[in-house]
Amino acid sequence: MTSLPQTRADEHFGSWAVDHLSPTYPERAAWGTVQPLRAWQQEALEQYFRTEPRDFLAAATPGAGKTTFALRLASELLRRGTVQRITVVAPTEHLKQQWADAAHKAGIRLDPDFANADGDYPRQYHGVVVTYAQVAARASVHERITRSAASLVILDEVHHAGDALSWGESVLEAFGPATRRLSLTGTPFRSDTAPIPFVEYVRDERGIRLSRTDYAYGYDAALRDNVVRPVVFMAYAGTMAWRTSMGDEMKATLGHGDTKDITAGAWRTALDPGGEWIQQVLKSADVRLTHVRQAVPDAGGLVVATDQAQARQYAQILRGITGHEPTVVLSDDAGASSRIDAFSKGDSRWMVAVRMVSEGVDVPRLAVGVYATSSSTPLFFAQLIGRFVRKRARGEIATVFLPSVPPLLALAAELERQRDHALDREQADDQLLDDDLMAAAEQGDKDDREPAPFTWEPLESSATFDRVLFGEAEFGQLVEPASEEELDFIGIPGLLDAEDVSELLKRRHARQAARIRERPQAEAGPEPLYRNMREERQLLNSLVAIVAKRRGEAHALVHAESRRVCGGPPVAQASMQQLRDRIHYLRKVMDRGR
To answer: pLDDT value at position 494?
Structure first.
């Protein structure tokens, strides 16, 4: 095998066919790209061929061009005779076709239709494209293919190999004999502690085992290089009311520092298709899309829903708002891939999908997103935002609408943070909500001897424009939807240079504040005492129900404890301050995890 004694800026890697592959395949090259390879791709290739390691982990932000980098490396290894076979492992069926098409343009023939039952593939191909699930189903088939000749295995979004213990074991079995392994990821971390095959972990100064990336090209670097779009987040707050599975009525405001249980209930209420919150946010997002399409006529929007039922209902709401039928993509639908392709190549306004569009699916014209799902893990958030950062032309920016809840606001503010996968944790949940809290919100205690007389039920919701997040800065303040103050932000130009976004938002912030100061304020009288007392009692009862369920105690015992610690008469006779003292006490109890 011939190795490179020294790399040069003009070093050629790969076949002449691969030279014609766009740095951002499958979409056309981003504005300003004049070289066959982007600087990071060239640098990563030079780093690889200096040592030619058996395992190499490249982490590059979505839209940076991981596919082009991988195929250029594969082409060079084939040219040198280092490998004779190539296997690409992708997360989804849809991506198998995408990889095969990209490889064809690079002069590499991959079979995306290979089935485990085939046993092997025709020799006119250089290799196959399979899914992680396909490998897990019959690892022995893929091990035999790997052993049959010197093989390169490309593990796309390699963190999926840790989705299940059996998947990780199957990947290790199937590709352990490979001559070379290239692992790719746009999000080099998982929310759990399942180890990722072929990834090296090293301990940091705190003793935490972190994944070691051989080459990293993060969102912050890509933004500086004008490779990806800047992302502006529009956060919406509001008041939510719901009935718990214990029959208690709850009321809370999105964005307030409530307990996880209350935040989860309020968030879930906001996403209810029958409520005002999601309907108003979809209206505002469509107004934003209209402004973007004035400069980018084919710009599209994506709503990501928690489940299929909500996806269909959101589509009905959008149909009523726009008068047009949105594209609906469901994960178990055989025609999902073709609908995504048709939407990508067309100019229709909206697509509504469940999680399958959160990763790896390239729809470059997406410019506006609505985060209408309950997931709050850093991995899922980064994957979803990755659908909007792919840049086609100078000045394109992305806008994502989301609930004003602490977990999402924190992730939006840390979009440029580089993360590694940790096998050890200093704290239980990284200060984020567990996805399971949403599902648990509607379920009674499994240990109850009798069926719960109530089911979780959203009662009402309202939406309020909260703020704009761009980088680590925040702009704007609480205003009513469809107001001039909201339009100050959702009406910003659809094409805007990245360096001008922050300055424009600062000017809009100042203009909004001036309008609010100059507007005569109607004097609002105080709420009747009985209304305030009722709300405080409802909140106290809800907190008592949560603590009682966690401890497996009767409600009366928790009420008695809070009364004993804080003093005062029974709830019905307690003063406003006594009720608030007990609420404060129970929140501290929940924070301590008692």
So the answer is: 85
CA-wise closest residue to 282 among 251, 309, 304: 304
CA atoms within 13 A on the CB side of 321: 21
Alpha-carbon distance 36 to 22, whole Å?
7
Structure confidence at residue 28 (pLDDT): 38
Both tokens of 9, joined, read 């800026």
pTM, two decimal places = 0.71
Distance from the Cα of residue 528 to its chain's centroid: 43
Helices of type H across 20-116: 39-51, 66-80, 93-105
pLDDT digits (tens, 9 = 90+) for 26-71: 443 332 333 478 899 999 999 999 999 999 999 988 888 899 999 9
Answer yes or no: are the C-beta atoms of 370 and 203 closer than 8 Å: no
The predicted-structure confidence for 113-161, as pLDDT tens digits, reads as follows: 999 999 999 889 999 999 999 999 999 999 999 999 999 999 998 888 7
Cis peptide bond N-terminal to 26, omega within 30: yes
* Tens digits of residue pLDDT in 176-210: 999 999 999 886 554 456 678 888 877 777 777 77
Burial 45-71 (b: 16+ CB within 10 A, else e): bbebbeeeeebbbbbbbbbbbbbbbbb
Give burial (CB, 10 Å; 0-12/13-18/19+) of 21: buried
Q: Are strands 201-203 and 209-211 parallel, antiparallel or unpaired?
A: antiparallel
**Cα 234 to Cα 83, 369, 390, 413, distances in angstroms:** 48, 10, 19, 12
Which residues are 210's β-sheet partners? 202, 422
> Which residues are registered as beta bridge partners of 402?
235
Q: What are the tens digits of pLDDT across the range 81-116?
A: 999 999 999 988 878 988 999 999 889 999 999 999
Token pair in block for residue 497: 């240079």
Q: CA-to-CA distance for 445 and 432, rounded, in angstroms?
A: 23
| DSSP E strand boundaries for 405-562 | 457-461, 464-470, 473-475
Helix, coil or strand: residue 121? coil
State residue 380 phi and psi, 5-degree precision.
Answer: -65, -40
